[in-house]
Amino acid sequence: MIDELSALRRIKERFRNVSKSVIMGIGDDAAAVQIHPEKQLLVTTDSQVEDVHFIKRQISAEQLGRRAVAVSVSDIGAMGGVPKFFLVSLGFSKDYGEDFWEGLMDGFEAAGREFEMELIGGNISASERLFVDVTVLGEVEPDIMVKRTGASAGDIIYVSGTVGDSALGLKALLAGGKEDEYLVGRYTAPQPRLALGRELAKRKLVSSMIDISDGLILDLERITLEHGLGARISLGQIPLSSSYRRRISDFMPDPYQLALSGGEDYELLFTSTEGNAGDINEVSKILEIPVTEIGHVTPEPGIILLDADGKELSIERRGFIHFSS
Amino acid sequence: MIDELSALRRIKERFRNVSKSVIMGIGDDAAAVQIHPEKQLLVTTDSQVEDVHFIKRQISAEQLGRRAVAVSVSDIGAMGGVPKFFLVSLGFSKDYGEDFWEGLMDGFEAAGREFEMELIGGNISASERLFVDVTVLGEVEPDIMVKRTGASAGDIIYVSGTVGDSALGLKALLAGGKEDEYLVGRYTAPQPRLALGRELAKRKLVSSMIDISDGLILDLERITLEHGLGARISLGQIPLSSSYRRRISDFMPDPYQLALSGGEDYELLFTSTEGNAGDINEVSKILEIPVTEIGHVTPEPGIILLDADGKELSIERRGFIHFSS
Fold first, then answer.
1. Which of B274, B325, B264 is nearest to B295 (CA)?
2. What's the CA gap between B253 and B322, in Å, rounded?
3. Do A123 and B142 touch (CB under 8 A)?
4. Angle CA(A318)–CA(B132)–CA(A28) in degrees, nearest 5?
5. Taking CB atoms and an 8 Å limit, are B89 and A91 in contact across chains?
6. Which residue in chain A has the smallest CA separation from B42?
7. Which residues pair with A9 in a beta bridge?
8. Three-class SS string for chain B?
9. Which strands make up the sheet holding B131-140, listed edge to edge?
10. In a structure prediction context, what are the per-residue pLDDT tens digits for chain B, which is 325 residues long?
């Protein structure tokens, strides 16, 4: 086991604070940073807990470290912001050993590079079960910040990329299949849609936005139902990857249930007025990130799913779709 | 067990964001706050982990919640800053039940009131063992921020309040003794020295400062040894509470070992030039917080302890004092 002091020394060496906006980085009582005076500070925190969010055998230490940062970064993207700094609070067990520790650090370092952020602080605790709690600080211009509230009846609902991959990837991983590289990668190495969220916000193209962490339907409810609105979604328009289409029947009889309820894709779900469709497609093309129209916001609360024939399917409860009608 | 949605709803109701500087509080992808344009942002995070930092039987849920916040607030105080906002990342097990949950929330609410901060976000995860990870955001004027570095040879070393109480309180608690209310309270309800840290910083009276979380000697090393300096400390000047003096012999043969190595007192340890002694005493009197001179900074690395006769005692290793000489 690495003792706390040498761990801290090595962390300081590895995560040098080079940005001028970091006044005090790792190693004092608190970190001190300079926030752009005309911007708002964004803060979000998220945890990865052993045997809850991950199983040690199924993810490498480096993947885990990067993933823990990526899921918090995704929240900054969903506000239209730019991540700037991060802190890691680690519950670490000596059972994990030094290789795992170094792997985690590799993951944090990779995430820092990828998302252009600096690690400015954190905490190491002993803990029987590993947990990685990441706080990300970001910035956003006050006039472009995108909230979960803001959708209006008639707005078009869009989703980026494809959904269900991560949940299916996890199933494939648990089944031991090594052949599903793409799907497994969507679970182990989620790609927050930072550039897309940012560009949509900068161009003021979206009325509400959220990243899909808990499943399409549940997160859709958060931008509609929770504000007294509803949605009509066409099942046939839900974007599914070719890997998902090919493999889903090996795991579940219905192809849509996991796509609608499986979380952790970290795709963006957003709403926009009809008139913005052209601009949204342009952003999608420029960034080479697919964006798909899946339905629209309704004035009546309730999520309605339509099958290929336009027939309504009912949703029995949050996050679980009942295909009975 | 409380489900996540109703938990979130209740949290939003309980922790209403009223400050104008909170642009987006609990419930969106990230919180958004306005930081004073001429101040630096301070950020710190700290965890309380079940069976590591606390044992469920020995602390109430409310005490635990308040304590988890207080220890992070203490870090802001040690920089000379003012806490403004906090986020809580909770690993919660269903074994704990609703009463414990409500107690924790009571603790967060009490801490928010006490330290004049707003809860602006957080995260709830399942976790077999409870953990409470608190991130505190604060502000400080750039020219008064106090770092751990900054002490010079010849500086006087001061400590606030008394030391060893919390460690002895925990021992008393584990021994089941209910009579040691003061000592136990020092463990269960630590009092960060926010006002003292702030006033010392505002008057620019200190060259370095740290809060004592890991024991007097270890934290003293962090402001001296780690920067190539040393310290001479007079044992007889170490401030001990009357409860500590009365009870320590029931637990340990030596009265000083726990005072020097027992952590979690969250007192401030700081250095200052000799000329500031009068002003420091004045601050201590105004705030009614005792401040005691315990020694001075030396140019040679190494911590030297002097007994009542001025005889040098040796420290065998970090945090453990060997009284052999």
1. B274
2. 13
3. no
4. 130
5. no
6. A32
7. none
8. CCCHHHHHHHHHHHCCCCCCCEEECCCCCCEEECCCCCCEEEEEEEEEEECCCECHHHCCHHHHHHHHHHHHHHHHHCCCCEEEEEEEEEEECHHHHHHHHHHHHHHHHHHHHHCCCEEEEEEEEECCCCEEEEEEEEEECCCCCCCCCCCCCCCEEEEECCCCHHHHHHHHHHCCCCCCHHHHHHHHCCCCCHHHHHHHHHCCCCCEEEECCCCHHHHHHHHCHHHCCEEEEEHHHCCCCHHHHHHHHHHCCCCCHHHHHCCCCCCEEEEECHHHHHHHHHHHHHHCCCEEEEEEEECCCEEEEECCCCCEECCCECCECCCCC
9. A22-24, A31-33, B40-49, B131-140, B82-92, B118-126
10. 566 667 788 888 899 888 899 999 998 999 999 999 999 999 999 999 998 888 888 899 999 999 999 999 999 999 999 999 999 999 998 888 889 999 999 999 999 999 999 999 999 999 989 999 999 999 999 999 999 999 999 999 999 999 999 999 999 998 887 778 999 999 999 999 999 999 999 999 999 999 999 999 999 999 999 999 999 999 999 999 999 999 999 999 989 999 999 999 999 999 999 999 999 999 999 999 999 999 999 999 999 999 988 899 877 654 444 443 3
Interface contacts (A, B; CB < 8 Å):
187
Distance separating alpha carbons of residues A50 and A129, to the nearest angstrom: 6
Residues of A in contact with B147 (CB under 8 A): 24, 28
C-alpha distance from B122 to closest chain A C-alpha (Å): 6
Kindly list the strands in the beta sheet with A291-298, ordered across the sheet, starting from the edge strand earlier in the chain.
A208-211, A268-272, A156-160, A291-298, A230-234, A302-306, A312-313
- What's the whole-model pTM score? 0.93
Question: B274: how many CB neighbours lie within 10 A of its CB?
Answer: 10
